[in-house]
Design goal:
The complex is a heterodimer of chains A (122) and B (110). Chain A has 122 residues and is mostly beta strands. Chain A has strands spanning 3-7, 10-12, 18-25, 34-39, 45-51, 60-62, 70-75, 80-85, 94-97, 116-120. The chains are: A mainly beta (122), B mainly beta (110).
Chain lengths: 122, 110
């Protein structure tokens, strides 16, 4: 059974930093493209970052609002995805998810974690 | 502002057919697959349609997807009360080197 468990969220002051983790199991993590998606309360879904599998070059892409402030990374030996968030702003307040296609090309984000809340406030 | 455009709301009565549109451009829907997600309040999204018109196992065949040019649609036949949820379309975008979501459509079953 595929499981994705996000952790590391919480309350942080504007300008602060936070690191999110996403522990994966039930599929071959090293083959999967991994993503971060967020959703502010009462708002729609917003793609944040993507990291392709190492076999696909490990290419990384970011959404414009987080580029230069957020860093996505992965540890395939630990089956874990990370999101380092720096210079946090109030508009980064959201529930963060780490969906995946679990290695199925163009299979869509069939698997999602429960999400983790990040609150940026003074 | 989302580059994929969806109507903010849709509604129907039980048993009706409802369609939700998703309009994009040549850099996203025009050249990439479209995906549809269903989200109940307080829950993580659920994949409803992948690769334009494919249903994951477990998704009822009342749900169907289609794509034509730079637009896509999600159709729900035989509407049920449990279909009341938010629906999002998504597609990769070459201009942004990322993924775009539509703004979401809240479906109400009257």
């Amino acid at each position: 059974e595929v499981q994705l468990v996000e952790s590391g969220g919480g309350l942080v002051k504007p300008g602060g930093s936070l690191r999110l983790s996403c522990a994966a199991s039930g599929f071959t993590f090293s083959n999967a493209w991994m993503y971060w998606v967020r959703q502010a309360t009462g708002k729609g879904l917003e793609w944040v970052a993507r990291m392709k599998s190492q076999t696909n070059g490990g290419t990384i892409d970011y959404a414009a609002p987080v580029k230069g402030r957020f860093t996505i990374s992965r540890d395939d030996s630990r089956n874990t995805l990370y999101l380092e968030m720096n210079s946090l702003r109030s508009e980064d307040t959201a529930v963060y998810y780490c969906p995946t296609d679990a290695g199925i090309p163009a299979g869509g984000w069939a698997y999602w974690g429960q999400g983790i809340l990040v609150t940026v406030s003074s | 502002q989302s580059v994929l455009t969806q109507p903010p709301s849709a509604s129907g009565t039980p048993g009706q057919r409802v369609t939700i549109s998703c309009s994009g451009s040549s850099s996203n829907i025009g050249i990439h697959y479209v995906y549809w997600y269903q989200q109940d309040p307080g829950m993580a999204p659920k994949l409803l349609i992948y690769r334009n018109d494919q249903r994951p196992s477990g998704v009822p065949d009342r749900f169907s997807g289609s794509k034509s040019g730079t637009s896509a649609s999600l159709a729900i036949d035989g509407l049920r009360s449990e279909d009341e949820a938010d629906y999002y379309c998504a597609a990769s975008d070459d201009s942004l080197s990322g993924v775009l979501f539509g703004g979401g459509t809240r479906l109400t079953v009257l």
